[in-house]
């Protein structure tokens, strides 16, 4: 057997090699090979794709599950066919994971070329100032794009350069009562007979609970952010200006409309109209159970149908529709929503800013916006494309209701160039609105009004602290950045209004 | 005298002059491949254990929003904020309650099962061992999601309790501020019971059969035999198993996050979820503050462990003195 020949028996002149030495040399060789193969983990697209601007790989991260097919069919495939040197690698992450993934990727120099900001979107200007992104205005003519009038300083444009563009409309909210037509019919409710008030909605939910095996309404309470949005929007429908009264700049979390909105939700629960497992659900769980026919009404956002089509298209065929956000009485109040922020941003490390800018410019075009509408996620920035797009009638109905129900609110970041510094400095105050509502819905015996007052005071104190911290750095910004004295609650706050406040 | 000294000199030759530096270098040169093989372990341990440990101490001294490249040194300010943060103490208390409730239950229940499965007369022992071990190899996140459905108000557990008359109305165990933490602890015990049972089975099999036979010949019943023979012999294992399970009880992020996400209203937020929420979940992530929470929790836990060791030692000495 050759392996039994002692290794010492080497030809004259060759160094002798005992077993230990052999193992040592082998180990060194193996490690060298391993190290040599470990060079592909962190290179940017510039390195992997070559130095030419027309070639390479664009890495793309977002959280838009309903847009998966549309992005591939209507943007990436046509673009890569027209630019054979370009490949696009898209990764869809859960919204809850994306913010964390971006932070980790940033620190390991592995940010994708293009990404959304979910989870880190409290102050995009702070990220711009930390050099996360590169401007894209020099690579494409965004000022002539169809969304040019929706591009604002402090949101998309910084120091005169555009970093991102709005792709979705600001005219939306997420308290749309989506209903299961089949269940309503079983319960003897005519979906056309719209419940416009809180009591009307309660009556419909009761009718479903009494006459079918299903629950009246879903109120997924495990996610406090969902509850915050729902309560704030119901409070606005009840007459609150929003979380902030823009005419004074003060927080109003403890105002009567907020208290009434919380009490309305609690009364639904007390009356046994809420799905019994709602407290342990996040909205996506509730959607799955709504699709399974366990409940009739689920207040959520315009992406409802888009999500359902991705998961269970047969449910959409079964029949669904939506109503307007209900209000406590006959008086009609609008829901306010701030201007739409940028959606996709181009990493400062990207070696393909021209390609990324070109893709983003295409996304602002009417063709893409119509395709975006047909995916039935958030409504597109060019809302009029919904009228002619291939969408479900209920989605078209939902978007047309936004035109009546939603008004654009002012944004301090647009009105004052340094306001973002305060927003970025502010820390989360707990327990916040969502947590207070969650406590109450979980059966804890709390004084909601007192808790809301404490939260309002804590939020104001935190903003004052953040303001003081920023002012100590020599930045000139005050509480007046939150005051828009010419704000009319039932009107859109337009760009020209910022000048006249 | 001179002769004696001479004898001493010859019988106890002086030690060679110390040359540690040259020795180490020579050894390095001679046995370089040994250190080469050790290098991956040293690098791995350094990169994934020592560095994060030291880094977290440094980070704890920084005001570091997650989106910034680096933080600003603020000294002990994060610790001052933590000491005044009710939610930190809430999560700290939750972690301790979890520990105190879940670890004795897991250790005790596993011992009980191990004793049953160690008996010769028990049927289907192999099948039962596999059955109890199955949850161990199931992902914590999957278990969390499944038990969310099982434990909600419309789930089978709540309905069974109502139908058996133990509950008046359905309870949402994972979404009730009074039960969510305990529901998490119960699921954790269920998940990990199998591995602790295996530890106990291994421990029981170290006790010679002759010892049991001798106890029976002396007229001891099963209870007395367990109390006076088996249990004393298991005490060293009890210490180790409790330690392992205690460490496990401080690593429950995946299960608790998927089961309750720390809610409702922070009622089941253990320290790991607090750290995660502060570092990644907030709209403005606070890495320095989250690191300070981790460091402070580690220090307090270490302090408690030392106090416990001192207390146990003192108790043992007292018992010894009484004898």
TrEMBL record, chain A:
Family matches, as Gene3D superfamilies: Periplasmic binding protein-like II
InterPro entries: Bact_solute-bd_prot1, SBP, TAT_signal
Protein name as annotated: Extracellular solute-binding protein
TrEMBL record, chain B:
Region Disordered, residue ranges: 1-20
Keywords per UniProt: Cell membrane, Membrane, Transmembrane, Transmembrane helix, Transport
Keyword Transport: yes
Topology with respect to the bilayer: Multi-pass membrane protein
InterPro entries reported for this sequence: ABC_transporter_permease, MetI-like, MetI-like_sf
Domain ABC transmembrane type-1: 92-308
Compartments where found: Cell membrane
Chief site of localization: membrane
Residues spanning the membrane: 32-54, 96-118, 130-151, 226-250, 289-315
Annotated Pfam families: BPD_transp_1
Keyword DNA-binding belongs to the record: no
Family named by the database record: Belongs to the binding-protein-dependent transport system permease family.
Protein name: Sugar ABC transporter permease
Organism ancestry: Bacteria, Bacillati, Actinomycetota, Actinomycetes, Micrococcales
């Amino acid at each position: 057997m050759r392996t039994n020949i002692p290794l010492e028996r080497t030809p004259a002149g060759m160094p002798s090699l005992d077993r230990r030495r052999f193992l040592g040399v082998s180990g060194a060789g193996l490690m060298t090979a391993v190290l040599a193969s470990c060079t592909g983990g962190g290179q940017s697209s510039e390195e992997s794709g070559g130095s030419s601007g027309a070639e390479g790989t664009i890495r793309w991260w977002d959280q838009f599950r309903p847009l998966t097919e549309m992005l591939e069919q209507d943007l990436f495939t046509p673009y890569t066919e027209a630019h054979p040197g370009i490949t696009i690698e898209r990764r869809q992450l859960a919204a809850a994971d994306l913010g964390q993934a971006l932070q980790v990727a940033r620190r390991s120099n592995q940010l994708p070329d293009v990404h959304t900001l979910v989870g880190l979107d409290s102050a995009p200007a702070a990220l711009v100032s930390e050099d996360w992104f590169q401007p894209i205005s020099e690579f494409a003519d965004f000022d002539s794009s169809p969304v040019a009038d929706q591009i604002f300083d402090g949101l998309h444009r910084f120091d005169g350069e555009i970093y991102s563009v709005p792709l979705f409309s600001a005219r939306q909210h997420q308290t749309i009562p989506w209903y299961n037509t089949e269940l309503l019919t079983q319960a003897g409710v005519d979906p056309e007979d719209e419940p416009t008030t809180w009591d009307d909605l309660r009556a419909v939910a009761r009718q479903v609970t009494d006459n079918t095996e299903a629950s009246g309404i879903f109120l997924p309470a495990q996610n406090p952010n969902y509850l915050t949005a729902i309560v704030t929007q119901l409070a606005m429908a009840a007459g609150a200006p929003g979380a902030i009264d823009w005419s004074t700049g003060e927080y109003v979390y403890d105002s009567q409309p907020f208290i009434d909105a919380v009490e309305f939700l609690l009364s639904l629960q007390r009356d046994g109209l809420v799905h019994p497992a709602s407290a342990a659900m996040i909205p996506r769980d509730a959607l799955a159970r709504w699709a399974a026919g366990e409940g009739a009404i689920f207040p959520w956002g315009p992406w409802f149908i888009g999500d359902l089509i991705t998961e269970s298209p047969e449910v959409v065929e079964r029949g669904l529709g939506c109503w307007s956000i209900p209000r406590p009485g006959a008086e009609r109040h609008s829901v306010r929503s701030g201007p739409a922020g940028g959606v996709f941003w181009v990493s400062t490390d990207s070696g393909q800013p021209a390609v990324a800018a070109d893709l983003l410019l295409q996304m602002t075009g009417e063709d893409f916006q119509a395709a975006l509408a047909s995916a039935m996620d958030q409504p597109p920035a060019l809302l009029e494309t919904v009228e002619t797009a291939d969408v479900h009638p209920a989605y078209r109905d939902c978007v047309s209701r936004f035109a009546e129900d939603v008004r654009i609110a002012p944004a301090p970041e647009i009105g004052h160039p340094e306001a973002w510094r305060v927003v970025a400095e502010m820390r989360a105050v707990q327990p916040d609105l969502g947590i207070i509502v969650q406590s109450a819905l979980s059966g804890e015996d709390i004084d909601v009004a007192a808790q809301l007052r404490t939260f309002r005071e804590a939020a104001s104190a935190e903003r004052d602290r953040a303001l003081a911290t920023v002012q100590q750095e020599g930045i000139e910004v005050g509480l007046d950045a939150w005051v828009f004295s010419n704000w009319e609650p039932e009107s859109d706050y337009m760009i020209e209004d910022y000048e006249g406040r | 005298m001179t002769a004696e000294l001479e004898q001493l000199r010859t019988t106890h030759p002086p030690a060679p002059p110390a040359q540690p530096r040259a020795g180490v270098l020579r050894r390095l040169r001679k046995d370089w491949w040994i250190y080469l093989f050790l290098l991956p372990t040293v690098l791995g341990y350094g990169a994934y254990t020592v560095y994060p440990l030291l880094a977290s101490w440094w980070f704890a001294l920084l005001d570091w929003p997650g989106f910034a490249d680096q933080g600003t040194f603020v000294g002990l300010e994060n610790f001052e904020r933590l000491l005044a943060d009710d939610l930190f103490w809430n999560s700290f208390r939750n972690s301790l309650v979890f520990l105190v409730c879940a670890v004795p239950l897991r250790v005790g229940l596993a011992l009980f099962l191990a004793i049953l499965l160690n008996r010769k007369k028990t049927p289907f022992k192999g099948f039962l061992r596999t059955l109890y071990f199955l949850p161990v190899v199931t992902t914590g996140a999957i278990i969390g999601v499944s038990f969310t459905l099982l434990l909600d108000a419309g789930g089978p557990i709540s309905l069974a309790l109502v139908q058996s008359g133990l509950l008046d109305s359905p309870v949402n165990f994972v979404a009730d501020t009074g039960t969510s933490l305990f529901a998490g602890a119960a699921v954790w015990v269920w998940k990990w019971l199998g591995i602790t049972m295996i530890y106990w089975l291994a421990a029981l099999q170290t006790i010679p059969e002759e010892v049991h036979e001798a106890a029976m010949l002396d007229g001891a019943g099963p209870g007395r035999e367990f109390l006076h023979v088996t249990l004393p012999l298991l005490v060293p294992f009890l210490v180790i198993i409790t330690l392992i399970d205690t460490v496990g009880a401080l690593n429950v992020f995946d299960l608790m996050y998927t089961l309750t996400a720390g809610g409702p209203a922070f009622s089941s937020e253990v320290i790991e979820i607090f750290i995660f929420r502060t570092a990644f979940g907030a709209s403005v992530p606070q890495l320095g503050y989250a690191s300070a929470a981790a460091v402070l929790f580690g220090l307090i836990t270490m302090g408690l462990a030392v106090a416990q060791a001192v207390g146990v030692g003192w108790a043992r000495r007292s018992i010894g003195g009484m004898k």
